[in-house]
Give the backbone structure.
Amino acid sequence: MLREVHRECCVRVDRIFRRIEADLHNLTPAVGELNGDRSNLPYGVVDGEPHLYGACDFEIGGKPRVTEPRDKVRGDAARIWLYMVETYMVKITPSQRKMFEDWSAADPVDVFERLRDTRIEAAQGNRNPFVK
């Protein structure tokens, strides 16, 4: 509940937040339960691979608590984060940047991601420079 109040306040008073929230590069479909459980936890690597969601390769754990997306989409998530850092000066730590760069290299851009980027450019007028 508190998170919703903070979000509503940001929408009302922060023009940059509204742009970030509406940026199509920042929006992806997600399974509701996973998205809700992820909440605002940062991405990271969860040791031990505790599969709390059956066959779905998505983990939450560690200290501090982080979420780890499946291998097939880590690069996609990383490139979105790198775009947000460059476009909106979203702050991440050097170790987060390295992790995102590593994830991007390990999961190269695929045909679907290129097509998505092209469609976003047509609708929004800009590309994600990390999707090449």
About this structure: The radius of gyration is 15 Å. The CA atoms of residues 27 and 71 lie 19 Å apart.
